[in-house]
Write a structure and sequence with these properties.
Chain lengths: 275, 347
């Protein structure tokens, strides 16, 4: 695992990414729900191929951060830079096209569609033919549909799901649904992938396999991955940088080793959890 | 690489469907022309076809887009009046120009559908139902009063728009049903159809996959309105006289019942129930006063025993049926629809 280096904007990025600009930067990000300050003064810098973790107690605002980054909620204040692009004024689908993909804590698959079709929805912009092309079934339609099917199958093989293409997504076991959601997100060709509790509901062996696969995805697709997770073994095992959130504020940032020995973190979160 | 469960190659499926289309088309046209099917029955069959297009078009908005518009008759009215006014004004042979009249009906309805869709689709569920209900009534009231208010001689209000060339026949209705089925089918089995269904299944997830939900909702709504307009144009050429009262709230409900009964999201379901709900009341003329009771009762029964409608979201596939009879390939969720043949099941 590569070393983390501090950079001028108070972030930490891996050594190997130091030459390239960060993929994502959040500055002073915050959102209020009525009177409740759900997230405040959120700073984040993520390197081009970094795997980072966002942890914190229940209700700390982790999912809300993901919802801000993907514009499911419009931030009340602050800036989100994707590479050198400011995402101000973008909506969820535009942010996705700009390079942020995500999964959901409460799985959101297209249940009535097959596994392959779910992935092909992710490939929507990879396929180019227009509506008349579909109606008149131009050669490009057949070619691109076939290519998309093949690509969906290839991507499903990351999780060894290539033979499940024709199953209805809603009929998959829980763990497989989570994995399918990751594949669907990957299909949108992101530069950063946000995973909201990817191991929730998985058994230890599934979790171990998932850990390997997350690293593999980063290596193969050369993208950044940020994950929210309560399973400390997973977080400490694969994340290079970790940010700890409590009551909507970042209370600590650093490498897994630093986080585990940080007394503030231990008190706010880890200590209670392990007890 | 894929398509393992359905062994039949794509081109073969197309050949089969095209052959079936021409056999049915030729056969039934022959029957009609040689007067084996009487004029009376032909008229019922044409009405079935018109209602099929109505049900299929509403099915786009309810079944595929997951919305509940209650003003579908309004789009039908727009198509009917636009086409009728055009047809009355032309001097050339009406039957030759009728395709253009149909297109004008469809485009007018689509244009208004587009305008209504943009604000209406920002609302969800009940609100969309109410706004479209209001829209349907507005159309009816406008058609009723526009002449007397503005001093036109356009719609003739309650006095009815008369002397519309009766250009609708078995031939052009059959073609329109076939084209409607084909266009809806090909769009739904494409990346655009997947995007539409994704929005229905989970809007936030669809957006997070980069799908422009506003675009596809508006598109679906516009397409739905277009085919309702086509049905309206056919209706105008069928009945010859238009009065706004034919396009009231009850008509919208009637179309909705066809869709719900057949199964939301199922083209073959829409077709079967449109045929049944058109043909049966005609056949049972004597009991016509019980028609609305029968409708409601039927709906209640279906909702209790099969809430997804008769066909669920199943779609008929001729080629997989042949495959099944041949005893090889399993039924598959991705199927091919070719439902045109229901046009004459009701003799
Ligand atoms: N749309 C909303 N309206 C009002 N309050 C909200 C909304 N979304 C989140 N919150 C509040 O913001 C806080 C943070 O919620 P969030 O879901 O981000 O927590 P979390 O860190 O993801 O917790 P968990 O580990 O349980 O998933 C909670 O107090 C929650 O009630
Ligand atoms: Mg959460």
């Amino acid at each position: 695992m590569s070393k983390l280096l501090p950079v001028p904007s108070r972030g930490m990025i891996p050594e190997r990414d130091i030459e390239s600009p960060p993929v994502l930067e959040a500055i002073h990000l915050g959102v209020d729900f009525g009177g409740l300050v759900a997230v405040d003064d959120f700073h984040l810098l993520i390197g081009r191929t970094e795997i980072s973790g966002l942890i914190g107690p229940n209700g700390a605002g982790k999912t809300t951060v993901f919802n801000l980054l993907t514009k499911v909620y419009q931030p009340t204040r602050g800036t989100i830079l994707l590479g050198d692009k400011d995402t101000a004024g973008m909506n969820t689908s535009q942010v996705c096209r700009a390079g942020i993909a995500r999964t959901f804590q409460n799985i959101r698959l297209f249940k009535d569609m097959t596994v392959a079709e779910n992935v092909m929805v992710g490939l929507h912009h990879d396929i180019k033919y227009h509506i008349p092309g579909a109606i008149f079934r131009v050669p490009g339609y057949w070619r691109q549909e076939k290519a998309a099917r093949g690509k969906a199958k290839d991507m499903l093989s990351i999780f060894n799901m290539q033979d499940m293409g024709d199953i209805k997504a809603g009929g998959l076991p829980y763990g497989a649904q989570r994995r399918l959601e990751i594949v669907r997100a990957l299909a949108t060709d992101p530069s950063i992938l946000l995973l909201d509790e990817p191991a929730a509901g998985m058994n230890p062996s599934e979790t171990a396999e998932l850990m390997e696969n997350i690293t593999k995805i980063r290596d193969v697709y050369q993208i950044a991955i940020m994950l929210i997770e309560h399973d400390m073994k997973l977080v400490m095992g694969i994340c290079e940088g970790i940010a700890v959130l409590n009551y909507g504020k970042i209370i600590a940032k650093g490498t897994p080793a630093e986080i585990m020995s940080n007394p503030v973190v231990v008190e706010a979160y880890l200590g209670k959890k392990e007890a | 690489m894929k398509q393992t469960t359905n062994k039949m190659p794509m081109w073969l499926r197309y050949v089969i469907n095209i052959i079936v289309f021409f056999v049915l088309f030729g056969g039934s046209t022959g029957l009609v022309n040689s007067s084996i099917i009487s004029t009376y029955y032909t008229r019922i069959i044409v009405l079935c076809g018109i209602n099929m297009i109505l049900a299929l078009s509403l099915n786009i908005a309810t079944g595929y887009l997951g919305q509940l518009p209650l003003g579908h008759a309004g789009f039908m009215a727009l198509g009917a009046y636009a086409s009728a006014i055009f047809m009355r004004s032309v001097t050339v042979s009406p039957s030759a120009i009728f395709p253009l009249g149909i297109l004008i009906g469809g485009v007018t309805a689509a244009f208004v559908g587009f305008l209504i869709g943009i604000p209406a689709l920002r609302l969800k569920g009940d609100y969309l139902a109410i706004i479209t209900l209001g829209f349907g009534e507005i159309i009816r009231v406008v058609l009723l009063n526009i002449d007397s208010v503005l001093g036109f001689k356009f719609t003739y209000g309650a006095a009815s728009l008369k002397n519309i060339p009766k250009t609708t026949n078995f031939f052009n209705t059959f073609l329109c049903v076939a084209i409607t089925c084909f266009v809806i089918h090909t769009i739904m089995k494409s990346r655009h159809g997947r995007a539409t269904l994704a929005i229905r299944d989970n809007e936030i997830a669809a957006e997070a996959c980069g799908i422009n939900t506003t675009y596809y909702k508006t598109f679906g709504f516009t397409l739905s309105a277009f085919f309702a307009g086509v049905a309206g144009a056919l209706y105008a050429g069928y009945i010859g006289v238009l009065s706004p009262s034919a396009f009231g709230f009850m008509k919208s409900i009637e179309i909705l019942v066809m869709v719900v009964l057949g199964g939301m999201g199922s083209m073959i379901g829409s077709i079967i129930s449109a045929t049944a709900l058109t043909a049966l009341p005609e056949m049972l003329r004597a009991f016509s006063q019980y028609r609305m009771i029968a409708y409601s009762l039927l709906l209640v029964i279906v909702m209790i025993f099969k809430p997804t409608g008769l066909m669920g979201n199943y779609d008929f596939s001729l080629s997989s049926l042949i495959g099944k009879i041949g005893g090889k390939s399993k039924p598959k969720s991705k199927t091919k629809t070719k439902p045109e043949k229901d046009g004459e099941t009701n003799e």
